Amino acid sequence: MARVTSDDAAAREILTYAQFGTAVRELAQQVVDDGYEPDIVLAVARGGLGLAMGLGYALDVKNLSAVNVEFYTGVDERLDVPIMLPPTPAVIDLTGMKVLIADDVADTGKTLEVVRDFVADHVAEARTAVIYEKPWSVIKAEYAWRRTERWIDFPWSATPPLVDRRGGLAH
After folding, report:
1. pTM of the model
2. Residue 99 pairs with which residues in a beta bridge?
């Protein structure tokens, strides 16, 4: 099936903040039902930060960390490969832990793959949780709230930033 581009407004998946709250609880319930007890929730910044925080509270995991991976550079525009940006958590600090990697979407899955590979040799186990998963993702998340082929409008990125860091205030 052909991938839907962001230009097709009718084919967009719209996530509201209220639905986001539901998604967090339902994802946490999937983790609990699976019997997985993570020692740490590792957020993929920026999109996975809110999910990681919510999962941390719902699963009573106080140990949260983040990795910043740049892949998307604009709407439906991305780099050739994801790049992990500094600072990165010291993998030695993750040794022997059960890690839950949280991100907003597994589109290509390449971002999650980079993070999973980054921790793989150090952790006891790593699993992934996403709000949305695309069928063509190279990573199949253990926990996904919804599966879609549509472009997703997240509540935190549906409107332009108030500031344009490349040139002052946004209009």
Report:
1. 0.84
2. 40, 126
